[in-house]
Specification:
Number of strands: 13
Distance between the termini: 6 Å
Number of domains: 2
CATH architecture of the largest domain: 2-Layer Sandwich
Radius of gyration: 20 Å
Oligomer: single chain
Helix content: 25-40%
């Protein structure tokens, strides 16, 4: 492919675009194929297929070993940078085979990559003050091995301009889900929870969005530790236990992030093994099921606490749409309904016409499409960046 080929894809009235996402939960590679028409607020989507492609056995633990705060091995991270890209390529091939669509028909791939560390808050080193972030699963590898134009590494440009580099979903939320009739919030509960506020009278510049705190990360860790299960299916374990008030209050006191003012973003470097291990040592006598119940309630509390402190005075929401793995946790959804009350309708994002599980993968397909069309897709009011910018690296096959 040369530059003229890239321009010809850019000029198409509709494109077949694959979106890839593997998040902090490390459940596998969410892989979606879309037909996309237009761009910006005129974007029209048609979902053609979706799969979650599993990591090879043992790979999740290898990634976890290299994403924990003050953990990691430069040799393993170097290898993972390529290995993750190879798994992404297999995920793409599995989806296109399932749909019986040749790779040659795909116009574009948008890949978030796998975050191994995210440190957007500025540090001082050798006279330089900067934030940093690292996503691996190199998009150049994906492009070369699929023969498809690939855009990835979306966070870096925003962080370079002083932003948090996250969340990036709000631009996507605005162009597809903004309503002129109701104030809406979109909550994605992956490993981390993030919320987007769409005021019915607002523009893209008025969007409020940030990470609220833990999503499935703490719940999944404790479910693996105490019950040898990857996650609490449907919130069944949480329903079987009771909230331990001492632990709940300690979580609120200990977790400084949920009280921090936006813009803000976080990840495993805050809510990793170190965070929860200290609490386990302190609260040894708590029954295992009560741990899951309490942590799940705390996850919902963190969402509402942030809304109540930082949003409610400016925008009173009428609808809350939930996506991500947490949308299937019925205990978590019940707690969200309890916190937000009868005046806020809590719904699954599928009621807006997209798959809850596929939402983030869809987002990065759309962001790749925006980059191809030359459109900035960060929101400085959300991330804290100095200005709007076109995101991502364009990798030719």
């Amino acid at each position: 492919m040369n530059i003229s080929d890239l321009l010809s894809i850019q000029k198409k009235s509709k494109r077949l675009v694959i979106g890839l996402m593997s998040g902090t939960s490390l459940d596998g590679v969410d892989t979606v194929l879309l037909e996309i028409k237009g761009c910006g607020t005129s974007t029209k989507l048609k979902q053609l297929g979706f799969i979650t492609y599993p990591f090879p056995k043992g790979m999740k633990q290898l990634v976890l070993n290299n994403v924990e705060y003050k953990g990691g091995n430069v040799t393993e991270i170097c290898r993972l940078n390529f290995l993750i890209a190879l798994v992404y390529v297999d995920a793409i091939k599995a989806l296109t085979k399932k749909l019986r669509i040749p790779l040659t028909k795909i116009d574009l791939i948008g890949s978030h990559g796998q975050t191994v560390h995210h440190l957007p808050d500025k540090t001082n080193l050798f006279g330089y003050k900067f934030g940093s972030t690292l996503q691996i699963g190199d998009p150049s590898v994906i492009a070369k091995l699929t023969g498809i134009l690939t855009i990835g590494d979306f966070r870096t440009g925003d962080v370079a301009l002083g932003g948090q580099g996250a969340p990036l979903v709000p631009y996507f939320d605005y162009i597809l889900f903004h309503s002129e009739k109701k104030n809406r919030a979109l909550l994605n509960v992956g490993g981390i929870s993030n919320i987007t506020i769409l005021n019915k009278n607002g523009t893209a510049k008025d969007v409020i969005a940030f990470d609220t705190g833990p999503g499935n990360m703490l719940i999944d860790y404790l479910t693996r530790k105490f019950f040898n299960k990857e996650y609490d299916e449907d919130g069944k374990i949480a329903f079987s236990g009771k909230v331990n008030e001492n632990l709940f209050n300690d979580l609120i006191k200990t977790d400084k992030f949920i009280h921090k003012r936006p813009p803000k973003s976080t990840g495993r470097e805050h809510y990793g093994k170190d965070f929860i291990t200290k609490l386990i040592r302190k609260h040894k006598s708590i029954p295992h099921a009560d741990w899951i119940t309490t942590i799940t309630k705390f996850t919902a509390f963190a969402v509402f606490n942030n809304y109540d402190k930082f949003i409610n005075d400016e925008t009173v929401i009428e609808e809350l749409f939930v996506s991500g793995g947490g949308a299937r946790n019925k205990y978590l959804i019940n707690e969200l309904k309890n916190y937000f009350g009868k005046d806020v309708q809590v719904k699954n994002v599928k009621s807006l016409g997209i798959s809850s599980d596929a939402k983030e993968a869809i987002c990065f397909a759309v962001l790749a499409n925006e980059t191809l069309r030359g459109n900035p897709s960060n929101i400085p009011g959300v991330t804290g960046a100095k200005k709007q910018t076109i995101l991502g690296k364009i990798c030719l096959p």
